[in-house]
């Protein structure tokens, strides 16, 4: 069965009327020199029997080292990657949410490959508010429809 993840997509309306989204650049040696397709919505796997929004909030905090803002979260949708992985995304207005104190969670892996040595790397290595138009090509392909859905919702308001 394909993995299921949950995440939080924060957005804010900028003074010029544009919309920005909070996205994170994936950490580790594979992503270090990549930009396009190397960014993500803060998200992670749902534990067995865990409420999906609780999982999204937990993963946000684990990846960024920041509690998600106290906001009214709405289900944006569930988006399916080409691999079959499913990501359920919640959305909220993140106006005023600052990321300057982010402390990124880490993972461990063998590095360099086949060396027998283990190294730790940040799950994400930076996070930033980015205009939706700029964020779209930078997100992993399976998450781009979430930005499209966000743009539709903003346009409806």
TrEMBL record:
It comes from the Bacteria. Residues 1-152 form the Nudix hydrolase domain. Coiled coil: none annotated. InterPro entries: NUDIX_hydrolase-like_dom_sf, NUDIX_hydrolase_CS, NUDIX_hydrolase_dom, Nudix_hydrolase_domain. GO terms for biological process: AMP biosynthetic process; ATP biosynthetic process. CDD domains: NUDIX_Hydrolase. GO terms for molecular function: bis(5'-nucleosyl)-tetraphosphatase (asymmetrical) activity. Keywords: Hydrolase. This is Putative NUDIX family NTP pyrophosphohydrolase.
